[in-house]
Amino acid sequence: MKNLFARRAEKQNRSFTREILDMTKRSLAISFAGGLPDESLFPRDEIRQEFENIFQNHDNSLFQYSSAKGIEALREEIAKTYHKTTKDEILLTSGSQQGLDLVCKTFIDSGDVVVVESPSYLVALNIFKMFEADIVEVKLNKKGVDTKELERVFKQRRVKFFYTIPTFHNPTSWCWSDWTREEVSRLAKKYGVILIEDNPYEALRFEGEKPLGFDRLLPAQTVSLGTFSKTLVPDFRVGWIRGDKDMVERFQTMKENSDLQSSKIPQLLCAGLIKSGKYALHVELLKKEYRQKRDVMIESLREYFKDTIEFETPKGGMFIWVKFPHFVDTMELFEFAIREDVAFVPSKVFFSDERKSSFARLNFTNSTTFEIKEGIRRLKNGYEKYIDDR
After folding, report:
1. Domain for residue 261, yes or no?
2. Segment (H or E) for 92
3. Where a domain ends, among 278, 304, 339?
4. Tens digit of each residue's pLDDT (9 = 90 or more) over 128-137
5. Is 70 exceeded by the pLDDT of residue 14?
6. What value does the mean pLDDT take over residues 33-50?
7. Is residue 1 predicted with pLDDT exceeding 60?
8. 202: CATH
9. Structural domain contains residue 150
10. Based on the domain organization, do 115 and 28 belong to the same domain?
11. What would the DSSP string read from start to end of 104-170?
């Protein structure tokens, strides 16, 4: 049985976040770990009504094989959210994570250089490692990626693509300035680098104006990933890729070799909810509820931790990025926190080299306001015991 599995299978470990979610499901722990929406807000009645409309207006061809591109009605609606984009530049996927997988299958050969922000989305890092990419990190700050460092990398290395989450970044929730977006577009054009713009949280904006998108700044070299998992329901697994027509055709070929197509019924549901206006109303509800939860977590962090930690108030998204004192290893702190029945994601997993770090990602969308207050109290108890144990 030796050497039974491929190298990529031998190297892959489960996501730390998935392990935390499994752990907290089996206990009474309050979890700030996952990027989960609030299931009490899922629009159950609207979904049921749309299901009934679909079954009334379609015959048995609804259940037949169809195009890997996805249904035309939803591609048309998604195209409207981008600058000068047609339905033929949209490919529907099984969640945005499949989109990321298709991007890697299309672009990455073993040893190719992929640039990411530091820190970056942990699942993306795992996928890039699975495809044996050479991952190069570029520092991130509150206004965006360090463009001077980025240009040095673009100049010195043959970069295949730059993967970024510029709007309510995961894990930091920071949002790039328009200046940074323009400068990155200029550099990508100058050095011929593809931009992979991952945008799962853009609709969850609590305040401020919508920033410039790379679909407007550099459309021919940008691949945008989107999803309804954060704004509707995750279980539908409806995501999409936006790119120029030639790229989309390549992605479609890869998808046909992966799963033939994604299920049409969730796609029809999304299209129907958008056309009826119910989706827009639901997103407004999410923004109102999530903003309140964000504010409760901010108030609780200030109440219990005072000035011992640092963080920015996010203008959208699902997370708060907390900086503990420099001597704190949040992977060690996690062990003390879980004993107090509260979970978070230590920052180590958001770096490709899994370095020791004093940051932590806290999710505020999947807990009640009571759980947020109680969870932060428990986190403070765990923190005090960690400090006493040093």
Report:
1. yes
2. strand 90-94
3. 278
4. 999 999 999 9
5. no
6. 96
7. no
8. 3.40.640.10
9. yes
10. no
11. HHHHPPTT-EEEEEES--HHHHHHHHHTT-EEEEEEEETTEE-HHHHHHHHHHS-EEEEEE--SS-T
Tokens matching residue 209: 């104006």
Q: What is the pLDDT of residues 349-367, one digit of tens each?
A: 999 998 899 999 999 999 9
Claim to verify: residue 100 and residue 190 sit in the same structural domain:
yes
> What long-range pairs does 125-129 form, CB within 8 A, spacing at least 24?
125/350, 125/351, 125/352, 126/12, 126/13, 126/15, 127/100, 127/101, 128/104, 128/163, 128/352, 129/11, 129/12, 129/352
Q: How far apart are CA 6 and CA 13, in angstroms?
A: 14
Residues 251 and 369 grouped into a single domain: no
Same domain, 310 and 372: yes
* Same-domain pairing of 288 and 343: yes
Per-residue model confidence as pLDDT tens digits over 111-158 = 999 999 999 999 999 999 999 999 999 999 999 999 999 999 999 999
Q: DSSP secondary-structure letter at 216? A: H
Q: Both tokens of residue 72? A: 């035309």
DSSP 310: B
Residues 24, 102 within the same domain = no
Would residue 105 count as lying in a domain? yes
Domain end (from 278, 293, 321): 278
Q: Are 72 and 26 in a shared domain?
A: no
Instruction: Kindly tell me the burial class for residue 186, based on how many C-beta atoms sit within 10 Å of its own C-beta (0-12, 13-18, 19 or more).
Output: middle
Structural domain containing residue 358:
7-43+280-389
**Res. 10 pLDDT band, cuts 50 70 90:** low
Catalogue the long-range contacts made by 366-372 (C-beta closer than 8 Å, 24 or more residues apart): 366/31, 366/32, 366/34, 366/36, 366/37, 366/38, 366/39, 367/30, 367/31, 367/32, 367/293, 369/292, 369/293, 369/296, 371/30, 372/293, 372/296, 372/297, 372/300
Residue 177, domain member (yes or no): yes
Residues 6+ apart with CB under 8 A from 232: 42, 43, 238, 270, 273, 279, 282
Note the pLDDT of residue 24: 66
**Is pLDDT larger for residue 108 or for residue 9?**
108
pLDDT over 70 at 66, yes or no: yes
Q: How confident is the model at residue 26 (pLDDT cuts 50, 70, 90)?
A: low
Report pLDDT for 49.
97
Q: What is the C-alpha separation between 176 and 7, in angstroms, rounded?
A: 37
Residues 216 and 305 in one domain: no
C-alpha 295/C-alpha 307 separation (Å) is 17
